[in-house]
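Hi all, a correction to my earlier message: I attached the wrong file for Mitochondrial ATP synthase subunit G protein. Here's the right sequence:
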Amino acid sequence: MALKLQQLQSKACQASKFLSKHGTPYYKQLLEQNKQYIQEPPTVEKCNELSKQLFYTRLASIPGRYESFWKELDYVKNLSRKWKDLNVEDAGIATLFGLECFAWYCAGEIVGRGFTFTGYYV
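and the right structure:
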C-alpha cells in the first residue's frame, strides 16, 4: 500500500511539474484559438446572462427533441411490423436506437444511485 502511495505521489509530482512548465502557453494558445467565443466585457453579469440564455435555449429545444423521439420510435415500430423486408441499414438503425435507449437507462441508474458504481470490487 505504501508503495502505491509513493507511486501516486511521484506521478502527481510529475504532472504538477508538467503543468507548471506547459500550462500557461497552452492556456494562452487556447484563448487565442477561441477568441471569437469570448464575450466582452468578461464580467459576472455577462456570465449570468449567458448561462440563462443557455438554460432557456435548451428548455425551448425540448419540444423538438420530444417530437423527434416519437418519430424515431414510430419508425422502429413500423420496422418491427414488416421485419421480413428489413435490410441491413434499417437493422443497424434499429440496433443503434436500442443501444441508445439502453445507454440512457444505464446512465439514469447511475445517476439515481448518486453516481456510484456497484458490483465492482477493486
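Sorry for the mix-up. The longest helix spans residues 2-33.
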